[in-house]
Amino acid sequence: MKLVFLGVGKMGLPMATHLLAAGHAVQVHDTDPQRLALAQAAGLGVALDVAAAMAQADGVMSSLPHDAALKSVGAWVAQHLTPGGFYLDTSTVSVAASAAVAKLFAPTGCDYLRVTVSGNNHMAEAGQLTLMASGPALAWQRVAPALKGWGTVQFYLGEGEQARLMKLVINLMIGQTSAMLAEALSLGSKGGLAWADLWQVIGASAVASPIVKAKSVQLSQRDFTPTFTVPQMLKDIDLILAEGDALQVPLLQTAMTRQMMQSALAQGWAEQDYAAIIKVVEQSAGIHQE
Question: Which of 96, 129, 171, 227 would be a feasible disulfide site paired with 119, CB 3.0-4.6 Å?
């Protein structure tokens, strides 16, 4: 297929690279020249005339940072994509923003696919993401084989915005896992358990989920290098809470986790991993690990 990929950040770049490796013709665009340079170094072509590239493409894909970007890019793609093509977006955005973009594509003769992913940039590079798709079923059947390089675990959830909501459900659980770890580790540390022992036993226990095991690799060494920063998690939590409001679902624990993330920001840990809320609880308990 001829594809245009918009947004080659930490997630978008490996996604586009996997498509190229699978034999597709991929041109990319990004507003950041440094990201475009990395894309070129990876062998990807840069679309010099993006509108013309989209008009000639079988489909356009994107990985974008927020609602406003999706609305802007979605409107642009809807204007230039040739009828019969598809627009596939992977961003973590609100259900409402995605639904607004769907309305733009309804009269175009193009398909709009929401394919959200679970996993960090390292998993994207390794082709180990979990894919959650919604949109026209026939369009998904057409595109799904091309995405095997992103991850072989793929779920089709329905014709509408199901993939957007499912991503928020998963990220709610990821955020809550970090809050759970913060309290559990602080309780153990304050009681005299060694940090390394805590992680070793947790990793062998019934609560050793994939996300806990993944986090233990760095956190057992107290390495808070980010795979997903505190502000990024805050953005997702805000999306989750907004959807809870829209559906009238009380998300009390998630609201408390948001306050922990705000505390991490106040401590100057914005550029650390969102698991920095472990240190928030430690400080509250009078624990000094570092």
Answer: 129
